[in-house]
Specification:
- By secondary structure, this protein is of the alpha+beta class.
- The relative contact order is 0.10.
- The strands form four sheets. A five-stranded mixed β-sheet has the order 1-3-2-6-7. A four-stranded mixed β-sheet has the order 11-14-13-12.
- Helix 11 links the parallel strand 13 and strand 14.
- It is built from 13 helices and 14 strands.
- Helix 4 packs across helix 6, helix 4 runs antiparallel to helix 8 and helix 12 packs antiparallel against helix 13.
Length: 352
């Protein structure tokens, strides 16, 4: 089934080019895993689950590891990377490798996201004319392994936005403006190189200052406005539907794991709504779980679901105020403007 889907939308049809190579030994491995399961000898929780890994993760098999570069085509890696070894021990079926920005985009500050010399341009699954900041990989297998983000579906936010959010939560909600590259790397489970790159633009506009030994958020307001201006809220919507209920009824029936943002989150942070009535509910949640409760209907959507990133839940059951601000900033309604003005007054006005 997975190979048919890869062939249908990745290699022909939409030609997304998100899979750079299929494992030539997949069939033999699958037969062996099926035989083990029939004999009740499952290796672990991932026994027989097809997985794709990024092309900058070593696999000690006949597949190449090139980081998307033609310069590294040739001999395969001699051994598995530790994470691949652990996945194999858990029983996963390594189906292939995925395309990526060549050298993980360590080529130029203006390079095209999702392009590599070996895999060509990976295309956006929703708008084919655009490059793919978020690939269709999660739609082709049960899961994919990103070298930086863990075993999960593609996260809602970019890693850069995760870094900015963490700095803003510390500054606005905890009163902490000092940190370091190593501390941020440990707190966010991201490489130091990723943290460093995420801070390039905040440094350039004077929002952040520092070096490897220490960082200081000089202007949280400027950093927040930078995030809000660059936030791609529409691109992160994974499910939208019209629900024939009042917003308070929708909010009451959401899954317990859903994390509200925008209007609902503002009201929960403040304890009451003194701004304006609103007509939409926005949440970070599992789209399938929400769809089971609210079936798809035609008409103007009043329930919007966004993909939660793996770090969001650590900030509580409601999106942090800085994220609520960035999301409201990107909603084109007069209610959003009213809520944004109220939040601006509470969150930003007295920040130096």
């Amino acid at each position: 089934m997975h190979l048919e889907r890869i062939a249908a939308i990745d290699q022909v049809g939409a030609s997304l080019r998100s899979v750079i190579q299929l494992n030539p030994d997949w069939e033999e491995i699958a037969d062996r895993l099926d035989h083990e399961r029939r004999q009740s000898r499952a290796r672990g929780p991932l026994h027989g689950v097809p997985v794709l890994v990024k092309d900058n993760i070593d696999t000690g098999d006949r597949m190449l590891t090139t980081a998307g570069s033609l310069a590294l085509t040739g001999a395969p890696a001699p051994i598995d990377a530790p994470l691949v070894a652990r996945l194999r021990a858990a029983g996963m079926l390594l189906l292939g490798k995925t395309n990526l920005s060549e050298w993980a985009n360590f080529r130029s500050s203006r390079s095209s996201g999702g392009w590599s010399g070996r895999g060509r341009q990976c295309r956006n699954p929703h708008v084919h004319a655009l490059s793919s900041r978020k690939s269709a990989i999660q739609d082709l297998t049960k899961c994919s392994r990103n070298s930086l983000n863990g075993v999960n579906c593609t996260p809602m936010l970019s890693r850069t936005e995760m870094v900015w959010r963490h700095l803003l939560v510390c500054a606005f909600d905890l009163g902490v403006r000092r940190s370091s590259l190593t501390q941020l790397s440990e707190e966010l489970s991201l490489p130091v190189s990723t943290i460093h790159k995420a801070l390039e633009r905040p440094r350039a506009i004077g929002a952040v200052r520092g070096s490897a030994s220490g960082l200081r958020v000089l202007d949280p307001k400027r950093l927040l406005q930078l995030w809000a201006a660059l936030r791609d809220l529409n691109g992160d919507i994974v499910y939208a539907t019209k629900v024939p209920m009042a917003v308070n009824e929708i909010e009451a029936r959401l899954p317990i794991s859903a994390i509200p943002t925008a209007y609902t989150a503002f009201v929960q942070h403040e304890g009451r709504n003194l701004v304006a009535d609103y007509e939409q509910v926005l949440v970070y949640a599992d789209a399938n779980e929400v769809e089971r409760r609210f079936r798809s209907r035609h008409g103007p959507a009043n329930l919007l679901v966004l993909e939660p990133d793996p770090l969001l839940s650590r900030y509580g059951k409601v999106a942090p105020r800085c994220q609520v601000y960035a999301d409201l900033f990107n909603l084109p309604t007069w209610q959003a403007q009213r809520f944004l003005e109220a939040l601006d007054g509470k969150l930003l006005r007295d920040v130096a």
